[in-house]
Amino acid sequence: MADETCTAVYRIHVWICRISPMIWRRLLVRSDSSIADLHYTLQTAFGWSDEHLHRFHIHGQDYGVSRVGGIIFSADPAKVRLSDFKFRLKESFRYEYDFVAGWEHQVHVEGRLALEDKGRYPRCIGGRPGKTAAVPWTSSRAGTKYRWTLRNYLRKSKPIWKRTICRPFVIGLGIWRNCTNG
């Protein structure tokens, strides 16, 4: 799979299938991001703790970060870049997380934008949380464990989330907070 000569930014719309009201996020991700990067970005955006198995289904093949006792993927997720897929506008693919709970996401490529010199990516530019909770938690202890996991990850690498307003909630350190009382 050949690398692109010019890095771009994909605007993607991700929603959880078969959930009402719809829970979704709109994200900006660099085209040179890996499949592993996208997995961790989605974990952060939806407030999950990366405790469960997952997979991407793109162009008829499964990709993901392998886990002990889980699915073995043929491609190294750190080496497979989003640019390798040469996504077209309006193209979609599937992301599944927690096979027992069945969280299936549709990932829709809405646009391909120029990379901003001072832009920080990945970035959430919109979304809608669930009505009673920001995200459907996979376990009761996930929130605490998730905050520590994310904090440790951010200490080891450059920050992945800039505090960005996503009406009606704010993302900061991967924790969704309501901005309004209604």
The overall pLDDT average reads 76
- Kindly identify the CATH topology: Structural Genomics Hypothetical 15.5 Kd Protein In mrcA-pckA Intergenic Region, Chain A
CATH architecture: Roll
Q: Biggest sheet: strands side by side, in what order?
A: 4-3-5-6-1-2-7
| Tally of separate helices | 2
Strand content: 25-35%
Number of strands: 10
Structural category: alpha+beta
Gyration radius, in Å: 16 Å
Low-confidence stretches: 131-151, 153-182
Counting structural domains, the number is: 1
> How helix-rich are the residues, as a percent range?
10-25%
The CATH homologous superfamily: MM3350-like
Distance between the termini: 48 Å
Shape: globular
What can you see in these coordinates?
- The chain is α+β, with helices and mostly antiparallel strands and 182 residues long.
- The chain has a single domain, classed as MM3350-like (Structural Genomics Hypothetical 15.5 Kd Protein In mrcA-pckA Intergenic Region, Chain A).
- It contains 2 helices and 10 strands, in the order ββαβββββαβββ.
- The chain has helices at 35-46, 142-156; strands at residues 8-16, 24-30, 54-58, 61-63, 92-97, 103-114, 123-128, 164-166, 169-172, 175-178.
- The strands form 2 sheets. It has a 7-stranded antiparallel β-sheet, with helices on one face. Strands 8-9-10 form a 3-stranded antiparallel β-sheet, with no helix packed on it.
- Residues 131-151 and 153-182 have low confidence and may be disordered.
